[in-house]
Amino acid sequence: MTEHARSAHPFYAYCQTALQEIEEQGRYRRFTSLSRRSTEYPVYDQGNIKQPEKPVTVWSSNDYLGMGVEPEVMNAAIAAIQEYGAGSGGTRNIAGTHPLHVALEAELADLHGKEAGLLFVSGYVSNHASLQTILNSMSGEWITFSDQQNHASMIAGIKGAKKSQCIIFKHNDLIDLEEKLASAPTTAPKLIAFESVYSMDGDIADIGAICALARKYNALTYLDEVHAVGLYGNQGGGISERDQVADQVDIIEGTLAKGFGVHGGYVTAKKEIIEYLRLAASGFIFTTALPPSIVAPALASIRLVRQQQWRREKLFERVHSFQKKLKAAGIPFIETESHIVPVMIGDAERCKEISKRLLEEYSLYATPINYPTVPKGTERLRLTPNPFHTDAMMDEMVHALKALL
C-alpha cells in the first residue's frame, strides 16, 4: 500500500479535524523543551541540549522536594547502573525481580503502616491496574463511589472494569457521599475511591470522615496519596499519616515520581490484597519491571525523606512565603493548606498567552492548566514553590504576574 493510499483512511481526516478544533478551543498543548541543571534546581536550560537558549526558572515541577537532584539519590542511580546495568531485563515474573524491588516494596509498606506493597511502572498504571483488577473480582457487581475530581488514571481503572457500577459523588462532599452510599443495595460490594491532595485546586480530603462512612456502609477504601507522599506526616507518609488515619484506609496508592523525585507507582495494603493484585493485575504482570537504576535511587530517596523532617518544614516555609508575596501584590490565587498554589486566570487563551509571555519575556516557566484538566472558566497557572525557590525568584515571579495579569 502506498503512502497516499494509507493517508486516505478516514482516521487521518478525523485527526486533522479534531486537532483543528482543539487549536480553536485554545486547548492545543505544546511541549517546552527544558533540561534541568542538577546543581542549580529549579533552574533549567531551554532549547537544544547542546545549544541551550537561556536559563529558565521553573515553577511547575512535581519534584516537590527536589529529591531528583539530591546527590545521594543521584549517586544511588549511578552505582546501580554500574553494578546491575541500565535495564531490569524482564517482567517481575521473568528474571525482572531484583532484591532492590523487594526492599523498596517493604519500605513503602512500612511507610504507610501496611503489611505489603507492590511496585508498578508509574502512578497512572498503579491506579488503573489496581482499581480495574479489584472491580473485576468476585461474583457480584461492585458499586464504586468516585470523587468528582479524581485523577484520570482512577477514572480509567473504574470505567475499564466490566463488573462495576460507578457513582460519582460531589467533590469532598461527605453529605452527598453518604446519601449515595445509603441508597445503594446493602448486599453489593462497595468501594470508595478518592485522593488526599487534589492537584489542581490543592484542597484536601477528610480521610478520617470518609473512612468512618466506609465502615458504616461496609465499603472498601482506596486512597490516592500521589500528591502528598513525602510531603506530609512525620515521615512523609502523606495526609493519612499526618491525620493519623492510615490504619483506617484499606489501600493506599502513591508515586515515586513527585515527592520522592524518581519514577514509578505503587500500592500498599494487607498482604492478601497485594498478593491478589500481584497475581491478577495485568498492568503489573505483563510489563517490564522498573530497572534497578530507578529502584535504588527511589529507595535512597524514601529513606532520606523519612528521616529528614527539615525538608518538609522548608517546603512549607517557602510555600507560605510565596503566598504572602502574592497576597501583598493583589494577585488572585486559591489559598489552601497544601503546597499547591493555583493562580487563577479564568480564560484558556489568556492563560496560554500569559504562560507564553512569562517564558519569553521573564524566563519563568509556569504551566497553563486548561480544560479538560479543569472546568472551563477556571483556567489557571499551577505553581509549586519548592525548598530551592529563593526570595529573589519569588519576587521575580510576583513582579511578572503583576505586570501581566
TrEMBL record:
EC number(s) given by UniProt: 2.3.1.37
UniProt KW keywords: Acyltransferase, Heme biosynthesis, Pyridoxal phosphate, Transferase
Quaternary data: Homodimer.
Catalytic activity entry: succinyl-CoA + glycine + H(+) = 5-aminolevulinate + CO2 + CoA
Cofactor entry: pyridoxal 5'-phosphate
Molecular function as annotated in GO: 5-aminolevulinate synthase activity
Family indicated by similarity: Belongs to the class-II pyridoxal-phosphate-dependent aminotransferase family.
PANTHER family: 2-AMINO-3-KETOBUTYRATE COENZYME A LIGASE, MITOCHONDRIAL, CLASS II AMINOTRANSFERASE/8-AMINO-7-OXONONANOATE SYNTHASE
SUPFAM superfamilies: PLP-dependent transferases
Pathway it works in: Porphyrin-containing compound metabolism; protoporphyrin-IX biosynthesis; 5-aminolevulinate from glycine: step 1/1
Residue intervals of the Aminotransferase class I/classII large domain: 55-401
Gene source species: Commensalibacter nepenthis
CDD domains named among the record's database cross-references: KBL_like (cd06454)
Pfam family, one: Aminotran_1_2
NCBIfam families assigned: 5aminolev_synth
Top EC class for this record: transferase
PROSITE patterns reported in the protein's UniProt record: AA_TRANSFER_CLASS_2
Name of this protein: 5-aminolevulinate synthase
InterPro entries: 4pyrrol_synth_NH2levulA_synth, Aminotrans_II_pyridoxalP_BS, Aminotransferase_I/II_large, AON_synthase_class-II, PyrdxlP-dep_Trfase, PyrdxlP-dep_Trfase_major, PyrdxlP-dep_Trfase_small
